[in-house]
Amino acid sequence: MNSVLNRASRNFLWRHPWQLALAIVGIALGVAVVISIDLAMESSLNAFNQAGKAFSGVATHRIIAGDGGLDEKLYRRLRVDEGIQKLSPVVNAYVFMSKQADAGFNLIGIDPFVEKSFQSIWQIRKNKNTSVELLTRLITEPNTALISEQTASRLGLNIEDDLTIDTDHGERRLKIIGLLSPNNAVSEQVLSRLIITDIATAQEVLEMFGRLSSIEVLIDKNQPDAAPAPAYTPSLEISAPAPGRSAAYTPSLEIIRKALPGNALLVEAESQSQAMREMTRAFSINLKALGLLSLLVGMFLIYNTMTFLVMQRRRLIGSLRSIGVTRRQIFKLIIGEALLLAAIGTLIGIVLGIALGQGLLYLISGTINAIYFHIDAASLMITPLQLGKGALLGISATLLAVLPPAFEATRISPVTVLVRSQLESGIRRLIKAANLISGVFILGGMALALLSGKSIVLGLASIFLLLFGFAMMTPAMTLMFMKLIERVFGRLSGILVRLPARMVSAEISRTGIAIAALMIAVSATIGMDLMIGSFRQTVADWVQTSLRADLYVSLPGEKMPDARAEQDQRLKAKLTELRDVKMLSSVLHTNTAIVKEGVSAGAAAENDFTKVAVFELNEKSRPGFIFKHKTDNKLWDRFEQQQTVIVTEPYAYHHGVKIGDKIRLQTDHGSEPFEIIGIYADYSGDQGHLAMSRRNYRHYWPDLGYSGIGVYAKDGVDLQQLENQINKLLTGQQSVKSDQAIYKASMEVFEQTFTITETLRWLSAAIAFVGVFSALMALQFERTRQLGILRAIGITSGQLAVLITGETALMGLVAGLIAVPVGYVVAYMLIFVIYQRSFGWTMAFHFNPGVIYQGLALALIAATLAGILPALKMAQTKPAEALRSE
Amino acid sequence: MSTKAAITIHQLSKSYQESGQRHEIFKDLNLQVSVGEFIVLLGRSGSGKSTFLNLVSGIDQPDSGEIIINGIQLTGLSEHDRTLFRRHHIGFVFQAYNLISTLTVGENLLLPLELIKRTSRQERDTVAKLLDQLNLADRFDTYPDRLSGGEQQRVAIARALIHDPDVILADEPTGNLDLDTGQQVLALFDTLVKNAGKTLIMVTHSPEVLGKADRVFSIRNKSLAIARNGVLPGTGAAVEG
After folding, report:
1. Domain coverage including residue A693
2. Residue B55: CB partners within 8 Å, gap ≥ 6?
3. What's the whole-model pTM score?
4. Does A795 sit within 8 Å of B145, measured CB to CB?
5. By residue range, what is the domain housing residue B57?
6. Per-residue pLDDT tens over the stretch A107-139
7. Are A556 and A734 within 8 A, CB to CB?
8. Is residue B106 part of a domain?
9. What are φ and ψ of residue A419, in 5° steps?
10. Which of A154, A280, A448, B72 is deepest in the core (most CB within 10 A)?
11. Do B99 and A796 count as a contact with CB atoms less than 8 A apart?
């Protein structure tokens, strides 16, 4: 029985290949978007972790420092004086291939004969090129490097060739003395972006003389302090253990901590990767929400298709019920079909998702690079877990979407086959219920937004509730709108003009869902457009207000408390002496350790670095700060004279601090409290930072030079000439730019960070388009006979095409009209709930009427386009065939 | 009834392709119908009665042969022109009523008028009058699926007649009706043909109808066979084949 029953279902599906294909496309697209975001996001973060593993290997801890890095004497002290063997010094920085600006490499300086148990990626490569001689050459010959075989082949380099790189201090040449062979895909990917040198070469090339970027530490957590540990086998050990200690000595964390200077922290290796995840968490959640939006639109599509497939078979199902097929069997039949469609759709979705993920990876890496930290646009890393998650989501979403039509199918009476009007009147009763539920959803969404504190996930959930609520209200609003259209045009025009509106209302069970799906996609588009527009305007205003100087000198590179700081000072002095310069301001971007409440200074991994902007301001640059509260003239006096800081809005939001609070910072003289006296707008990053006066900073920390110098020209000066003069004073990567050039560059970065959002939003619109297309195709197929009657009584194929296109255009119009206010609600929620919670930014709501027209046009064009093919297909159908169809 | 030929069918052939096989419905069928003549068509299920009506109305196209209505060769017209011809000259009553479910009864009747550009306020009165004749005066604003089968069939007949076509094609118009309603419908057709001089081809099995028809044909062996030759005064019009 079951097999025959299944055949009845299968045969029906085969006879409707269009609908079958579109249902599968709906599932596939939804799954593809979700999977691609997950894969691209995870791959981006993994690229960061894997790059770290290249030199940290299985290190448990890492000694890190703020700007200026670590004094290399610390390494010697820990290793020789404290006898800690499992240490690996690292010097690293990003460099670029000369004349290939996009080809970034992580240049890592390592000690080739370091403890082998770190299992760094460069250590676990194949053996053929790892001879002691090669490593010895790396140490003994200056400016020598190793790269992977793949990189060499990509760059067309051979052993003994020169590799020219751009560092912050200019062009440098390295000699390739050996090629590394990766032994698996992961190491191949990591090594493809690595240049390995010895410590001394890296220090020289990067001008980090006597400094280290970090020291990797391997501690056996299972061993008690100072207890004998199992002997390890040093690979190419060159230094002897400290006298009186065994090679198996396990260092105590306390010993290391006590030995650290004020600007250094001992952190768990994992905590850094977690910190990176935490930093990108909001970004990641927002992207995933966009993916879920696509899936939600996809679910509407699945629901729509499955409802069609059930409704079209009401005769078949009625007949089956009349010969004794139970409700349960019907339910299983529909669920079985859905599972099959879900399996096929999900499978295609996974394949599509992997392909799409590759494209998104580039965009996501770009955004992370622009906002958070440097990562390489690595290749996609696909894990079974991610694919499993996507598959589960696709199948669950399909089953969830198919439940209502499956229940509907079981209600089909075996005695009478429901006539259309009964179905529609049933649907109208459902619409009334849906209106009530939509009210609950909308109120629930608003309440959730108000009561969910700082939770981003709950904030997004509230948007989804609101969207769902408005979607459920859409059929009722459509009916009202169509009635209005009929009233307005009905008196003035004939039946043919009224017919499209009548067709939309008469089949509201089908048209309503398609309109709701389109409405969701368009409102999300309008909402995001308004949000991005508001954000763009806010950022543009902020950048323009902040840019007070005429010219800005950028001094990139690692900041060092040495000769380099003195160079910066000399440059500043030369700038002051220029005839056309009226005054200067300066900023130093650095990091300093923050001491958390109840945690002893420098003694715990929980403490972390915070970004600090050190300002030297003048009367012209001070108005460049937009404070989030009322200020008086005393603020700047206190900023300069007292132990105070001002903090950015994101910093205040994320750390929950307010004016009057004190922040303890680890200075070279111990931990010191700094009072917060102001909170100001800053959109340069979402983690936020502190700002203090240079006077304050210099009191507690060594001079690290400058990151930028603002140049204020005298009145009437030719700025281009001044720029040329300044350019002559600059070296290496230093540059001078006008305020307008900086404004332009800032806005370019802004646009770049939203490329991924734009892409995902278009993807969800594409899914909605498929949804509307699918619904319209199904709708036209279902009413083939009705359309055949129209043809039989004398309506031409052209008139029929116009009728159908008119109907779809009306559907688009109503979707667009509902989407406009809903889009405003979405924009409001994004600006005042999601973005504030995610990034700590507040921004003004900038109304842009263009967005409304664009949204309306998008809905109208999408629906009309989606209606063209069904219209043509129906117009081409011979009336005799149409009349024969059931 | 005029002796002028309203419909001339010459060497008409029609076949369908189904499951890879060719099914011939008609082969070299010939028929001449006079203006005002009432023809009844009999035949087993699947014999091609509905196909014949579809061909005469221009809804379907023959494989070969000619259909000439009021001097216009239908088979020579494009699909678009056949549609335009149909909207002016043909009234079709379908077996399953085939009313437009999204239009009210009144709108179902106004639509054929609108298609031939009769859109004045008077047309509404014409529709109301016809509905009154059919005892459907109070159903103007009712949607078809709220009507009984008999009422729907009467609306379908009214729609076929409202634009005053020359030829009325009716596919078992009383098949789904009870005896009384069926008789009402037949009386209506009878009046129309006799009083208004319309040409009527009806597919039916109703014995009541057979008695009223001028000629009765049966579809046999892919052609028309005369089942009862009516009195055709002064014409000699006869069935060929």
Report:
1. 556-733
2. B12, B14, B61, B62, B67
3. 0.73
4. no
5. 5-228
6. 888 887 775 665 565 555 544 455 677 778 888
7. yes
8. yes
9. -85, 160
10. A280
11. no
